[in-house]
Amino acid sequence: MLYFRQYYLGCLSHASYVVGDTESGRAVVVDPQRDVTQYVADAAAAGLRIERVIETHFHADFLSGHLELAEATGAVISYGAAADGRVEFPIDPLADGTRLSLGSTAGEGVEVEVLATPGHTPESISLVVRERAGDAIPYGVLTGDTLFIGDVGRPDLLSSDGVPADDLARQLYRSLHDQLLTLPDATRVFPAHGAGSACGKHLSSETESTIGAERRTNYALQPMSEDAFVAAVTDGQPAAPLYFAFAADRNRRERATLHESDPVPVLDLDALLRAQADGAAVVDSRDPADFAAGHLRGSINVGLGGRFAEYAGEVIRAGTPLVLVTEPGHEQEARVRLGRIGFDTVLGALDQPLVAFATRPEVVEQSSRLAVDDLIERTKAIPGLQIVDVRGAGEVEADGMLPGARHVPLAQLLDRMDELNPALPVVVTCASGYRSSIAASVLRAHGFEDVSDLLGGFGACRVAGMEVEQPTGTAG
What we know:
alpha/beta; six-stranded mixed β-sheet; 23 strands
């Protein structure tokens, strides 16, 4: 009997899966997140042995848990055959057409069929799951980043490595039409990501679909020529987060494994300030309002309540040592979530932040958060005011932006900071105020003196009836 479970990690828009046969007790895990305790515990509770970890491709948006699961269970690690020779650890590569039987006897019980589906990356595969070997209609297909709900995988992430996006887009077209769209319409579709992921531009918030539904409604699967498809899927992709190239590389490396229960070292304020002076980034994960009320000078505010790891990876360069300021009791959560993208160099967390701030007010500062009325007054009073919009390109294209604003997606802020004048006042806006607090803190940490973020973001501007213009072009 088929055991099938989807795990959805909302803060990274990431889906992973356990597929098993309850009669034989054999199971595989597909595209696991790095903290793997849940897979091990759930498999054991169901009487399953995790024998194999299958990665649909080299992920760029998170550090995958293949090494952690192999360490915990002895499982074999598998990628598609095109990954062979490209990793530093042993793998059992899976060729197109391979059928993995999870039953007690070969050819019986639950079966997983491998489809080579290059396009998002050269080694991408999809996995067709059948409840019984030979079933005409599969239970479902795990599509990785090849086919999403409402979208397909972006083919441009390897452009910086010299792999042309157009070439991968043509491979993707053939993978979709020659492989996935030949499956019966009733086949369920289970992708590796959902809405919010930067691995595509139109991902749905749904976590399951069917081949038939995608054939009817997915813009990229409508009848069109290969050339038209290439144009459609390469245009308008969001700016790739800064850490993507780092994570994609680390996923191919032999590296230290994450141990979720390891304690976070406790630092007093003097130790934290020494680490900061030596180049560590201070990551303050408190709510933006609490951060604005008082924080260590030079710290970066990435609230734990949002897409914490992703946004930290957009504004802090990989490999930078980190020290944490968190609400008491959330140090471990912050460390694990940073570990999910490979940011492992966490030196420690500040002991009792509010007490530390009270004892050393000279190293603490407040930050400015403006209401819409304040922004309107500043716009009139300060001719050189710089308004920076850090939303994604798709958001700006859909909703417009404030007249005269400069569009700098958050993922590009570190590389485009020299486009701004640090001597002039800056107001940062996003959709609601979360990303603008991040961006404003980054600018202050890099020497900008007069920086505010906008409470309620662009949404508050629309409610207040502020003028909006449609941009002639957007970055990213």
